[in-house]
């Protein structure tokens, strides 16, 4: 069997955002070409990423010398200089780069980039605010595994209104639009030949309709992100969810 092709990305602009992204990708085993017009900006990451190059990315011949069209994607990480970002987008297009990802610092800049057919636009400040808002609004959400921009597998503390109910009494799929995968439960077991006890976390397995949900259970669920938000809000409102996720 042949070895899998190693992903490689060209990152342009090594400010705080670009440098952090470059280092994170490199630590995940991805080949990173870090580009900046300042050698000083490249100094801190030169020993972590595959390669660093000091050049002006608005100059087409300079980027062409790096065979940038052969990379899986070019990521423009520049923040404040939006005019420079637009120039680099033009250069990358002229060089035949298939996938361009661009950072925007304002929603107006993101709007302009999307109208230039840049489908992948990063808005770090907006994304950070969204994640914080979700974290604060969904305190009962324990862990999440994002499968796409809309769907995820998540661990949720059992809502109070479900405690003592059988799984079959709660219509997870049709009423809440989520799928119950399993239940994590902490149980107290004897330890040291019965002279002490310890708490052990175990999986209930595939829940059956007769499985009773207990206080402090963790439900492992699959569904649309909006469905989880409504599910957790319903714990406070004691209401049911009659609407599916918006498409």
Automatic annotation (TrEMBL):
Domain RCK C-terminal, chain residue ranges per copy: 140-237
Family annotation (InterPro entries): NAD(P)-bd_dom_sf, RCK_C, RCK_C_sf, RCK_N, Trk_Ktr_HKT_K-transport
Superkingdom classification of source: Bacteria
Gene3D superfamilies xrefs: NAD(P)-binding Rossmann-like Domain, Regulator of K+ conductance, C-terminal domain
GO biological process: potassium ion transport
A GO molecular function held by the record: monoatomic cation transmembrane transporter activity
Domain RCK N-terminal: 6-122
Annotated PANTHER family: KTR SYSTEM POTASSIUM UPTAKE PROTEIN C (PTHR43833:SF7), POTASSIUM CHANNEL PROTEIN 2-RELATED-RELATED (PTHR43833)
Protein name as it appears in the record: TrkA family potassium uptake protein
Organism: Prosthecochloris vibrioformis (Chlorobium vibrioforme)
């Amino acid at each position: 069997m042949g070895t899998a092709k190693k992903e490689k990305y060209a990152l342009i602009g090594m400010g705080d955002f670009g440098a952090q992204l470059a280092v994170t990708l490199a630590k995940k085993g991805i080949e990173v070409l870090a580009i900046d017009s300042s050698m000083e900006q490249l100094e801190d990451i030169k020993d972590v990423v595959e390669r660093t190059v000091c050049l002006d990315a608005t100059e087409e011949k300079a980027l062409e010398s790096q065979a940038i069209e052969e990379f899986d994607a070019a990521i423009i990480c520049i923040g404040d200089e939006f005019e420079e970002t637009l120039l680099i987008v033009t250069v990358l297009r002229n060089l035949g780069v298939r996938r361009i990802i661009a950072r925007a610092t304002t929603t107006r800049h993101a709007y302009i980039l999307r109208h230039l057919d840049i489908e992948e636009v990063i808005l770090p400040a907006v994304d950070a605010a969204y994640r914080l808002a979700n974290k604060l609004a969904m305190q009962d959400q324990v862990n999440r595994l994002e499968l796409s921009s809309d769907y995820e597998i998540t661990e949720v503390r059992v809502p109070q209104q479900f405690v003592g109910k059988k799984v079959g009494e709660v219509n997870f799929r049709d009423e809440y639009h989520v799928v119950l995968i399993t239940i994590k439960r902490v149980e107290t077991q004897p330890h040291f030949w019965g002279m002490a006890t310890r708490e052990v976390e175990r999986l209930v397995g595939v829940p059956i309709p007769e499985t009773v949900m207990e206080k402090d259970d963790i439900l492992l669920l699959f569904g649309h992100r909006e469905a989880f938000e409504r599910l957790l809000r319903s714990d406070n409102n004691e209401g049911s969810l009659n609407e599916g996720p918006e498409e």
